[in-house]
Specification:
It is a single chain. By secondary structure, the chain is of the alpha/beta class. The protein has a single domain, classed as TIM Barrel. Helices cover 33% and strands 18% of the residues. The chain is built from eight helices and 13 strands. An eight-stranded parallel β-barrel has the order 1-2-3-4-5-6-9-12, surrounded by six helices. Helix 3 links the parallel strand 3 and strand 4. Helix 1 packs parallel to helix 2, helix 1 runs parallel beside helix 8 and helix 3 packs parallel to helix 4. The chain is globular.
Length: 272
Amino acid sequence: MYTIERLKHLDTGNFFLMAGPCVIEDETTPLKIAEKIVQITDELSIPYVFKASYRKANRSRIDSFTGIGDDKALSILQQVRDHFDVPIVTDIHTPREAQTAAEYADILQIPAFLCRQTELLVAAAETGRTINIKKGQFLSPHAMKFAAQKVIDSGNSRVVITERGTSFGYQDLLVDMRSIPIMKKTHLPVVLDITHSLQQPNQSSGVTGGHPELIETIAKAGIAAGADGIFVETHPNPQEALSDGANMLHMDHLRDLLEKLLALHQALRKFQ
């Protein structure tokens, strides 16, 4: 992972973690989540980036929760960043958002559905921040080198690529673990999103479903396939989360999962 201010434990050789709630949904939950994850990752010596969207633009229904207001949500991200001394990753959706979000976030994330939007990628690149591009559900892993190259050709080589599943029919996703070594051929850090990869989109209710019981399985497979980082959305009460609760990891299970992934990662390093 690139050297990023506030990113600790880089000397351990462990995989890095992007984790947090799907979206800033109130003033207190993000701080509680950050406090717990910082404690766990410090004890396990895992490089940690706090993840939360300040606004969700891609919703199935017009009445779906999108956020508490940009200014308020961004100020909460700033509180997390300053209080816990951790880097922040958050989504942007339009070119004009890039510079504003860059004032609060260390990593700008390009949502999967927008990974081919040239103006968005260029605007993100021009902020100088690290850019995490999520692979579109409609793209092959081979095609992600072109999305990454748009950022690089715009003068910013700080690019991360995230696998988050491929559309399988209308209402399911699958993860092709070949994607990880294929995308690593770019020589860029490759992350596996272990929660969105288990979504069941396009449900008749208009609310995305998921298979959180398979998070550990997907995560282990990703580490075994060579993922440099793990992305996970987590919440103290996923059933009450205002976005993507159906595929989130309950916070009570995070430490156990990370301990298992570390053991697997360290075992695999013996054969490298």
